[in-house]
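Quick illustration, no need to memorize.
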Amino acid sequence: MQIFKLVCSSILVCFALMLGSCGKKNFLSKKNLEFSIDTLVFDTVFTTIGSTTKQFKIYNRENKTLKIEEIELMGGANSPFRLNVDGNMGSSLKNIEVLANDSLFAFVEVTLNVNGEILPMIVEDSIRFRTNGKDQYVNLAVWGQDAYFHYKDLNEGTWPNDKPHVIYGYAAVDSAKSLNIQAGTQIYLHKNSLLYVYKSTLNVQGTLGNEVVFQGDRLEPDYDEVTGQYYGIYFHEAKPSLIDYAIIKNGTAGIHLFSEDPNNSSYTLDLKNTIIQNQARYGVFIYSGAKVKAENSIISKNGTHALLVLEGGDFNFNHCNLLGYGNSQNPAVGISNFYTDYSTSTTNVSSINEGKLYNCIVSGNLETELAIDTIQMAGVNLNFDFRNCLIKSQEIQTDSFYQNTFWNSNPMFVDVDIYDFKFPISSILNGNGISTAVNTDIFGNPRNNPPDIGAIEVN
């Protein structure tokens, strides 16, 4: 009897194991995977710079768990792509399960090696998924671009323009040196990077239709309108410099000028035919005595100011658009001849020997887009001269330096959201400027007599 019980018990155990085994076998689906895409495409990526992470989904459409026997990056360990599936990283993964009617995320990044070529290259790979003995593939493709890389280096002479220039940290122009940047040069700056002009000269020599472009080094469409991707162009006690036909976008402070060469009686910077837009803070920041002459330039949609003058300095802006229209609660133009350092409770006061706005538009979303805050004292000059400008201000100013000012009129721009600052002939801007030596507009169109106000002439 005891033997019978043991035999029965053994039979029951075996039967239970068989049921478990059969249940396990039935538990796994014999079907295959589905994917949210068949090809994962990366936008242009610079060699040595990693991409953003892209993703796709792996689906199990069945009512049973599906086991992925192998996931393999076909390029192996030498592939420029990197793979992460459900938190598992590597070029070869095994035995990953997808629950019934569930999905997993696959994440992919890519970093390309330098290939020494000028033209963009296409790099491809694929991911193999083996389930129930069947192989399925998701293809990977990236457009790669070699570049000249600058990492905390010193620069002079002329930059070639056959490949983009990418700046990490800073690219510096050292004391008494000069750097020329040719028309058509594309310059990409990494996070917090800057082009640093130290007691030296920078000449940016773009042309109409072949501008020099400064922007962040993330080329994915998601970054097209992201501010603060790099710092900007910083002039420190610079010698006379030129920026002509440039586009400076998506930085923190597009152009930042600190003081100038004490032996320079001319302008620190001559800015012409340039677009500065979508900076996290300032379009042009003139600090502590720097001097800027600008014409036919559009500075718009920045985080704090289009133009900020702090602790004095000189400015001569003619036919420029100095515009808000961003998310800032600060006026488009802020001018002050002093700065208070609250950590030391000291206030530094300087002169504004030349403060000209001719034929300029100062406008935006706020009720007041021009703020002037100055301290007058012995030995300090404040010489303002504003003529034939359209200015938006809640309070109409009566100082004598406002001459022939058009207060609070709607400029009737075509579409500020897409930076289209053209206007119809019915706009107050049409024909209400004062004639100067600026004979063409930012697009090379001849100026009428009298000209239009702003950087654009409507013909």
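The chain has two domains: 34-144, 147-418.
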